[in-house]
Specification:
- With 533 residues, the chain is α+β, with helices and mostly antiparallel strands.
- The protein is 31% helix and 20% strand.
- The chain has 16 helices and 19 strands.
- The chain has helices at residues 7-28, 35-42, 80-93, 154-162, 179-183, 192-195, 223-229, 263-275, 307-311, 334-346, 362-366, 368-378, 398-409, 461-477, 492-499, 503-513; strands spanning 50-52, 73-76, 101-104, 120-123, 133-135, 145-149, 166-168, 202-209, 214-218, 237-248, 252-260, 282-288, 303-304, 320-329, 356-361, 389-394, 418-424, 441-447, 483-485.
- Strands 5, 6, 7, 8, 9 and 10 form a six-stranded antiparallel beta sheet that branches. A five-stranded antiparallel beta sheet has the order 12-14-11-15-13.
- A hairpin with a 4-residue loop joins strand 8 and strand 9 (214-218).
- Helix 13 runs antiparallel to helix 14.
- The protein is globular, with a radius of gyration of 24 Å.
- Bound molecules: flavin-adenine dinucleotide.
- Residues 62-63, 102-109, 113-114, 124, 150, 172-174, 177-178, 180-182, 184-189, 233-234, 238-239, 369, 486, 520, 522-523 line the site of flavin-adenine dinucleotide (FAD).
């Protein structure tokens, strides 16, 4: 239903709210308001958008496809005020209700992080259609940024910025994610070694705190809130707008893959590339474990540099490591970039017959995972359980980790890709909330498994979950200094261990900006407590 703010509505709203609040507070000592009375209360919130109370299954689902918490209502906001009014309303109800609020970008979470059991889910995508603003102030391109809503998708931002010949610098591998969703985590991809994660490329935020206040923040203004929100798992506020730093956009990309059979050589080359002054624009890598010796589709859509040599290549059942690189260029500088690529490749020690190169547009390169998404969707394989495990591993532990995990725990990589690539810690800001290892270089290792529903075999959920547990147990018992990314824990003690020395500050920020613990309950870090519950 829609509720538009007219003066008549306002009077009705005040009368109704007063009556219901009065009843709710006087009854609170005896019984808490029922779901029905809370729904009635919510209908009185002055909105330009509307609440839905029916057909909410969508808001109880996510990409992980394993956790389902049904909300009481979904807010479809038409303005930032709608979000602020709703949160303020819940804040003013105080502890008379257990109501919580979760912002939902696209629901690409893995463990119900964007869900709110019997609470309110805010459909951040409702504000998506609103115009973005690309600004090239005083300093021109150097200081350019795009100002977007928190629910905006990165793919839309890319297309809009390209109209101005500009682009954000740091990405995720998949662009159909929302700005608020990735900035609440970190946003890491093959550009992070150079530009830092997406949270290192934000100039300003507009945030609705857990008290319903709309606050602007940046490195200079309300900086404590600014840094806390970045990587803050939605705990301190809902990101309603963000200013993202831009750079000139290239038109084309040389996309390169080479293989290694020796892990030490593979990581040495990766580390050499991320530390070099002149290097690629994107560096990632992945693991191929295939005991049969038949290679899977690691090179599909790539042309071999030497087709005859490449056709003779076989893995002999060895574990292989694929280094993936990209160099951006424009047509007029194609020959310069060719030379740079040659020079960079000449310093690497990959298996020479495995050099594969593709030339694609910048958009096609960045939007590459969407192609796989469409294929998987058409086969009904997108909406399966995704027991993903993402780890940040310090450089000093990566060899020990690889030996045990790729050499022993995992028998093959047929359940999904395993990404592995290093990043420079100097590009991450210590003041943000994201938890990363202490060392100058650390690796993102991502086990991106899909489970076959109802299978009890090696491709089933139980098998993959027990494999994940073995990996985590190994890291813990060998004290590898590993931190989980996109982490999921069930107890506060586990979160405390995850945050380590920053836990007390994280808790302090929570009590400052969301003292009633209303926001982002799906992470299960804090639990809004209600009397007599
Ligand atoms: P949601 O799932 O909707 O929300 C995630 C969390 O953020 C929830 O706690 C939610 O309450 C909170 N939130 C959402 N919007 C806001 C807001 N506006 N303000 C405050 N809090 C908010 N991550 C990477 O870093 N790198 C990758 O390369 C990468 N690739 C991925 C590929 C795929 C196919 C998928 C499914 C995920 C990938 N991710 C990657 C993970 C992704 O960044 C996170 O799952 C992210 O949270 C998803 O964004 P979303 O918009 O769907 O967020």
């Amino acid at each position: 239903m829609k509720y538009r703010t007219t003066s008549k509505n306002r009077i009705n709203y005040l009368n109704k709210t007063f009556m219901i609040m009065f009843l709710a507070t006087t009854m609170a000592t005896i019984i808490l308001p029922s779901s029905h009375s809370i729904s009635l209360l919510l209908e009185t919130v002055p909105l330009e958008g509307h609440f839905s109370f029916k057909e909410l299954t969508h808001a109880a689902k996510d990409f992980g496809n394993r956790f389902q918490q049904h909300p009481l209502a979904v807010l479809h906001p038409n303005s930032v005020s709608d979000i602020a009014n709703t949160v303020k309303y819940v804040w003013q109800m105080g502890l008379n209700s257990g109501l919580t609020v979760a912002a939902r970008g696209c629901g690409h979470s893995l463990h119900g992080q964007a869900q709110a059991h019997e609470g309110i889910v805010i459909n951040m995508g409702s504000l998506r259609a609103s115009p973005m603003k690309v600004v090239q102030s005083g300093g021109g391109v150097k200081e350019a940024y795009v100002d977007v809503y928190g629910g905006e998708l990165w793919i839309n931002i890319l297309h809009e910025c390209l109209k101005y010949g500009l682009t954000p610098k740091s990405w995720t591998d998949y662009l159909h994610l929302s700005v608020g969703g990735t900035l609440s985590n970190a946003g890491v991809s093959g550009q992070a070694f150079l530009h830092g994660p997406q949270i290192s490329n934000v100039l300003q935020l507009e945030v609705v705190t857990g008290k319903g206040e709309i606050v602007n923040c940046s490195k200079k203004q309300n900086s404590e809130l600014f840094y806390s929100v970045l990587g803050g798992l939605g705990q301190f506020g809902i990101i309603t707008r963000a200013q993202i730093s831009l750079q000139p956009a290239p038109k084309m990309v040389k996309w390169i893959r080479v293989l290694y059979s020796d892990f030490k050589t593979f990581v040495r080359d990766q580390e050499k590339l991320i530390s070099a002054q002149k290097t690629f624009d994107y560096i990632e890598g992945f693991v191929i474990i295939n005991r049969t010796g038949l290679l899977n589709n690691w090179r599909i859509s790539f042309n071999p540099q030497d087709p005859v040599q490449a056709s003779h290549f076989s893995s002999d059942g060895k574990t292989l490591f694929c280094l993936e690189m990209a160099k951006y260029f424009n047509h007029q500088e194609a020959h310069i970039s060719e030379q740079e690529i040659k020079m960079l490749l000449s310093q690497l020690s990959y298996i020479s017959s495995t050099l594969f190169i593709a030339e694609v547009s910048y958009v096609d390169f960045l939007d590459r995972v969407h192609v796989s998404e469409l294929k998987l969707r058409s086969k009904g394989l997108w909406e399966v359980p995704h027991p993903w495990l993402n780890l940040f591993i310090p450089k000093s532990s990566i060899h020990k980790f690889a030996e045990q995990v790729f050499g022993n725990i995992l028998k093959d990589t047929s359940n999904g890709p395993i990404l592995i690539y290093p990043v420079n810690r100097s590009k991450w800001d210590n003041r943000t909330s994201v938890v990363i290892p202490e060392e100058d270089i650390f690796y993102l290792v991502a086990f991106l498994s899909s489970a076959v529903p109802s299978s009890t075999g090696n491709d089933g959920l139980e098998h993959i979950l027990s494999q994940n547990k073995r990996i985590l147990d190994y890291c813990e018992s060998n004290q590898l200094g590993v931190k989980q990314y996109l982490a999921h824990y069930t107890t506060q003690q586990e979160w405390k261990t995850h945050f380590g020395p920053t836990w007390e500050f994280f808790k302090q920020m929570k009590s400052t900006y969301d003292p009633l613990e209303i926001l982002a309950p799906g992470h299960r870090i804090f639990h809004k407590s209600i009397p007599f519950s």
